Amino acid sequence: MIIDVCRPRDFLDRTMDRYVRLFPCLSDPARRSSSGLKVALVMLHLVYVGLLFAFDRHLIEEAVTRPWYTASYLLLVVATLIQYFLTSCSSPGYVLDAMRASNEIDIAFRKASKQPASSKNADVVVTIDRNPVGINVQGDLTSWTKMVMDMYPPGTSPRNFTCSYCHVEQPPRTKHCHDCDRCVLQFDHHCVWLGTCIGQGNHCRFWWYIFEETTLCLWTGILFISYLKADIVRAWWNAAIVIMLLITLSIALIFLLLLLLFHSYLVLTNQTTYELVRRRRIFYLRGIPERVFPFSKGVCHNLYDFCCHRSVYQLEPLPSVQALEERSRPYTCSDLLRCRCC
């Protein structure tokens, strides 16, 4: 008897085709992988919280005596998941979108004043055509080119800040992401778990997500430890499962805590992960000493720009030589009294 081994394969192919027809947005393998990670992360949260309430009967009894405590914990779980999806669906700030926004401002300016736009007001006329093959940018890029060139030191070759993939001029702190196939403003890194880049537009949301996730892991770990320390009769396999969950939760908590501290340091010094790791490979940062943060405006100003005064398409020019010399000067007692670090 000859067994047709191709039938299971054909069945899987037909099932995948029907699945793609029902959900066209998941036809891309990268999107399917990102969606799978999102589902896995949500299920991981539900498993930890569900097993916690399934094992710890005392926690359910506390929900009656102290409803605010249980409600606060469940509210943190929901807020963390909402923050996760908000961050994953947010835009990191793409160069092409910034050019489109500048184009809209330029059109409104020309209608109001009937004068040609200049590079000083960051206006530019750009027409963007999107097709299945790629992204074509056409139009008058003169003002955009001048605006970008004014952000770099005089004599810088346009070849150094022109993207070889998008063929557009990149402002400082911009990098082309090969996973997203776009240039990202103030590129930090591409997060696999979120399925998107972390850049100027969503770095603040990313920090808040890490903070909420760290708090949730810490709180869940405390509840697991309280369950193990409680003097109740339980099956041995219950304790074994809880101990395994607590070990994995501790590893995740250490990783999240280090990640939170690292990004807090980046926020206070106005740096990105890419600038910190690849500083010697970025041409406009090579001559700057390691201890000098060229884009830092002080701790207070950096926090304000990061949390309260952050525009999605805010472009930062390179600091002047005088500003770099001022920031490289060692701190003195008078500088601390005058709050120079702030």
UniProtKB/TrEMBL annotation:
Membrane-protein topology: Multi-pass membrane protein
Signal peptide: none
EC number: 2.3.1.225
Enzyme category, top tier: transferase
Lineage top rank: taxon: Eukaryota
Record domain Palmitoyltransferase DHHC: where: 162-278
Recorded GO MF terms: protein-cysteine S-palmitoyltransferase activity
Biological process terms in GO annotation: protein targeting to membrane
Location in or out of the cell: Endomembrane system
Spans traversing the lipid bilayer: 36-55, 67-86, 206-228, 235-262
Reactions this protein catalyses: L-cysteinyl-[protein] + hexadecanoyl-CoA = S-hexadecanoyl-L-cysteinyl-[protein] + CoA
UniProt-listed InterPro entries: Palmitoyltrfase_DHHC (IPR001594), PFA4/ZDH16/20/ERF2-like (IPR039859)
UniProt family annotation: Belongs to the DHHC palmitoyltransferase family.
Entry text on domains: The DHHC domain is required for palmitoyltransferase activity.
Name assigned to this protein: S-acyltransferase
